[in-house]
């Protein structure tokens, strides 16, 4: 766990520093202050999900260790040139990388998980007050990220009505599925943070 926390911290630090050092290749219509604000929001999202999964509410009594990524967004593929497997989050340069496509898929991810969490909170819950209290901050961060100027205004194919089809009447089954899905969201949040570090660096424009 200590190594993982160090990994997260190093990725976040890189993302923040890139906002300040990429002035030679700035993001379109994006001020340094806006970039830093978005970086902090992505950091908050990752840390929020990390703490959520460490708690004893959402995954209480869940024996399965399965990780599920339900979003249909191709974020991993679209942002692949910006991602590496080493622990210090150094990013390779790749002329085939499409910033707009990567951002479009990140937006689709955020929209999907927002709808999934909203619909889950309307389904039968084991401990309504506790689960709402734990998941509401996640929704607040996602909403702020959707309004972030790093995000392009693109339509998405997600909806709360479609997401609601995942949930049934059994609170344990619903919570088990949500726990697995949030583990998947955690993995995706790491991917997004690393991709945003690459985009903020401006290396793909060199």
Automatic annotation (TrEMBL):
Cellular localisation: Secreted
A Pfam match: IL12
Source taxon at top rank: Eukaryota
Keywords tagged on the record: Cytokine, Disulfide bond, Growth factor, Secreted, Signal
Positions in coiled-coil regions: none
InterPro entries on file: 4_helix_cytokine-like_core, IL-12_alpha
GO MF, any single term: growth factor activity
Leader sequence segment: 1-24
A single cellular component GO annotation: extracellular space
GO BP annotation list: immune response; response to exogenous dsRNA; response to lipopolysaccharide
Family note: Belongs to the IL-6 superfamily.
Subunit structure and binding partners: Heterodimer with IL12B; disulfide-linked. The heterodimer is known as interleukin IL-12.
Protein's recorded name: Interleukin-12 subunit alpha
Source organism of the structure: Seriola lalandi dorsalis
